[in-house]
Amino acid sequence: MTPRERYEAMLTGQSCDIVPRTPILMRLAAEQINAEYIEFTRNYKVMVEAQIFCAEKFGIDQLSVISGSYGETQGYGGEIGYRPLGPYVSRLPLGATTDLGTLRNPDPFTTPLLIDRLNAIREYRRLTGEKYSVCGWIEGPAAQSADMRGIEQFLMDLIEEPEFCADCMDLVTDKAIIFAKAQHEAGADTIGVGDAIASQVSLRTYKKLIFPREKRLFDAIKALGCYTKLHICGNITHLLPAIAELDVDIIDVDHMVDINKVRDILGSRVAITGNIDPVLVMTANPEYIAKTMRDTYAAIAAPFLLNAGCEIPPGTPDVNLLALCQRIDA
Question: What distance in Å separates the CA atoms of residue 201 and residue 173, rounded to the nearest whole number?
Fold first, then answer.
């Protein structure tokens, strides 16, 4: 099977040869081709070279455009700075105001970092055709709002200014749907949504403010014909009953979450990825990593994708990533 055929077979319940491998690679991917991570985040040619190199070297079944989280923030008027560890926002678009009218329009066809992401997707397809699944990426409504407002201020706003948060996340969701459509048209078959800050709020706040926007976003992505993926770093155990109501095909599960509980609550409709601690992927011996992944798959069964709880850290030995990406009969 080709990597994409394997990936889609796992998601749709069809016969599959081995468990697909979809680790999140960013700084490590750049490291593999001796490139600066700064360039990986803003030069699609570097990203494409690094991701394809890693896919071929480690047996990875999906190419991704996940890199820095500030492409959309740039589109809203954020000023992006760069340092060796990657990009950061040097001016928050909503850092000093709650006036949404001050924001620019994050047009995916005029914002430099969003253009770069679309170019990466097109280049993946030009170079590899339909061999690999290609995962586009957008920030979720809470994560993007926090990127523009500042994390601490956004968390305070959820309590003190819920109406502002609702309006901000509505706007963000509208724009994210447009960007998701552009990535799909460029060649992405899957759209990942990163909403990490959601793990830091209560179930009540999540259900009242964040969940309705995530649901609208995922429904719109599914309507495009894309597979959907939810990535919320941290402990999402308390959010699982609500997440079960989202139309997601894949969920990334971090290492502090009981993956068996995820399967119990979400059932066999959703493909689970994870959930070994990424630090252990970097520091443990390969035999431990390989056994952990085999035991995890044996415990929760398909649909499942081999991955860690989050991004594979830079400095991870090749033998360890190879152990994570081992061939496990599906």
Answer: 19
| 62 Cβ neighbours under 8 A, 6+ residues apart | 3, 7, 20, 21, 22, 55, 132, 133, 134, 135, 190
| Intervals of the chain under pLDDT 70 | none
Per-residue model confidence (pLDDT) at position 116: 97
Beta strands in 195-306, from DSSP E residues, in sequence order: 227-231, 250-253, 271-274, 304-305
Q: Which residues pair with 62 in a beta bridge?
A: 133
Cβ within 8 Å of residue 126, ≥6 positions away:
none
Contact between 8 and 300 (Cβ < 8 Å): no
Q: Residue 89 has what pLDDT?
A: 82
| Coil vs helix vs strand at 326 | coil
Task: Write down the pTM of the prediction.
Answer: 0.96
Cα pseudo-dihedral 22, 25, 30, 34, rounded to 10: -70
| 70 alpha-carbon distance from chain centroid | 13
Asked whether 274 and 255 are in contact (CB, 8 A), the reply is yes
Q: How do 86-91 and 79-83 pair as beta strands?
A: antiparallel
What are the tokens at 235? 């402990």
**Of 82, 83, 85, 40, whose CA–CA distance to 64 is shortest?**
40
Count Cβ atoms below 10 Å from residue 81 Cβ, excluding itself.
11
Q: 120-137: string of b/e by CB count within 10 Å (b at 16+)?
A: bbbbbbeebeebbbbbbb
Can you list the pairs that 10-13 forms with residues at least 24 positions away whose Cβ atoms lie under 8 Å? 10/271, 10/302, 10/303, 10/304, 10/305, 10/330, 11/227, 11/249, 11/250, 11/271, 11/303, 13/302, 13/303
Other C-beta atoms within 10 Å of 214: how many? 26
- In this structure, what token pair is assigned to residue 233? 């770093």
**59 CB-near residues (< 8 Å, 6+ apart):** 21, 322, 325, 327
